[in-house]
Amino acid sequence: MLAPREIDEYLLPTERRVIRVRQHWAFMWKHVTQTALFLLIVVLGQRYIPTTGSAAVLVDNLAFYLALVAVLRFTVLTILWWIERIVITDKRVMLAQGIIVHNVGMMPLGKVTDLTFQRTLGGRMFGYGTLIVESAGQIQALNRIDYMPRPEEVYEALSELVFGEKGKTRATGLLARPRWRR
Predict the structure, then answer these.
(1) What is the rounded CA–CA span in Å between residue 87 and residue 19?
(2) Dist. CA 154–CA 134, nearest whole Å
């Protein structure tokens, strides 16, 4: 499995890591709900299907193996979520994922033309959002990152890296137009 410090082996010697996170735990809510509902259906089916003799043994065994498959599926999905990392360095954005086949997708920060983050009501309540990274006329591997934890902090840090220091433009180093406050 990919340990958090192992992702650093993909960093260039001239790069520094700015942010390393995994998707918010709310990402797993769908899988928890699916597994719980499936297990409930299996238990109710096993309990209320009228059987006698050898048919009862068959139904019990089938219910056991279906429940085992559901729990194993949930375990694998949880491990995949746990080892997936979103890494932002001062030069690129990377997404590392996979157990058996390890994939590392990346987008250079120089190609980023626009950043957006969206938050649903659930995202505002639980602290996650969607980060949309657009590049010059191309669809990149990392154009949409759902369930990003603390999206305001990530958005601000990424904006500073892409568009220059806070309050300064990258090209001139002069102060940019002051931000309007409400």
Answers:
(1) 6
(2) 15
Mean pLDDT of 61-74: 96
Instruction: Using alpha carbons, select from 132, 175, 137 the residue that is nearest to residue 154.
Output: 132
* Distance between CA atoms of residues 18 and 21, nearest Å: 10
Q: Give the mean pLDDT of 45-54.
A: 84
Give 92-112 pLDDT, tens digit per residue. Answer: 888 888 888 888 888 888 888
Residues 6+ apart with CB under 8 A from 59: 45, 46, 49, 51
Residues whose CB falls within 8 Å of the CB of residue 176, separated by 6 or more in sequence, listed in order: 164, 167, 168, 169
Q: What is the DSSP letter of 175?
A: B
Residues with Cβ within 8 Å of 161's Cβ and at least 6 positions away in sequence, in order, are 18, 88, 90, 109
Instruction: Name the token pair of 99.
Output: 């157990």
Confidence (pTM)? 0.75
- Average pLDDT of the residues of the chain: 82
For residue 170, the 8-state DSSP code is T
* Calpha distance 179→167 (Å, rounded): 9
Q: How many helices (H) and strands (E) does the chain have?
A: 4, 7
Q: Give CA–CA dist 28/78, Å, rounded.
A: 7
